Amino acid sequence: MADTLERDRARLLEVLTQRSFERRRVVLSSGKESDFYIDCKRTALLAEGHYLIGRLMLEAIRRDAPSAVAAGGLTLGADPLASAVSLTSFLEGGGQKSLHAFIVRKEPKGHGTGQWIEGLAALGPGAPVAIVEDVVTTGASTLKAIERAKLEGLTVLGAFALVDRLEGGREAVEAAGHRLTTLFTRKDFIP
């Protein structure tokens, strides 16, 4: 299995590099300027990318947060990741081993219940969850998802991201008392 995971990791890096990575100057949502851009949705929304992300993130969650019953994060970057993890968990065993998906809104729903989290009804009070994220830069989105999940009564076991840009996000998440596991870092794209 380790060989298969390594092969899947290498393939995911290849797809991310081909489809999602661009070497150019950009202004990020944090307001910082960067010499590269990575849009993981370009990979996560491909059938192969969805499959690879699901396998690799599920493996990381099961290793580092084995009691998690769900995976989710801040919309929109986390949405396909949570979906991939949930689907893969069902396909790999179903039943009690399946992880549900949830979505953390940036603002509460404007009508009806005014809820912040979609999928919360499937989780019990205090449910142990993993926060997923596509790219970590400053850690602000990850921390917002963690805070909102906790305010809704969930127990956050850690955060899991595809890419750490190595721009202070890991330190911010860890300073807030949470573990951050990433599949790749800036160094995988720019040695």
From TrEMBL:
One of the GO biological process terms: 'de novo' UMP biosynthetic process
Swiss-Prot/TrEMBL keywords: Glycosyltransferase, Magnesium, Pyrimidine biosynthesis, Transferase
Catalysed reactions listed for this entry: orotidine 5'-phosphate + diphosphate = orotate + 5-phospho-alpha-D-ribose 1-diphosphate
Signal peptide location: none
Coiled coil: none
A GO term, aspect molecular function: orotate phosphoribosyltransferase activity
Enzyme Commission no: 2.4.2.10
SUPFAM superfamilies the record matches: PRTase-like
Keyword set includes Chaperone: no
The protein's enzyme class: transferase
Binding site residues for 5-phospho-alpha-D-ribose 1-diphosphate: 105-106, 109, 111, 133-141
UniProt-annotated binding residues for orotate: 137, 165
Keyword Glycosyltransferase tagged: yes
Protein's pathway: Pyrimidine metabolism; UMP biosynthesis via de novo pathway; UMP from orotate: step 1/2
Cofactor: Mg(2+)
Top-level taxon: Bacteria
Subunit structure: Homodimer.
NCBIfam families in the cross-refs: pyrE
Free-text function comment from the UniProt entry: Catalyzes the transfer of a ribosyl phosphate group from 5-phosphoribose 1-diphosphate to orotate, leading to the formation of orotidine monophosphate (OMP).
Similarity-based family: Belongs to the purine/pyrimidine phosphoribosyltransferase family. PyrE subfamily.
Record-given protein name: Orotate phosphoribosyltransferase
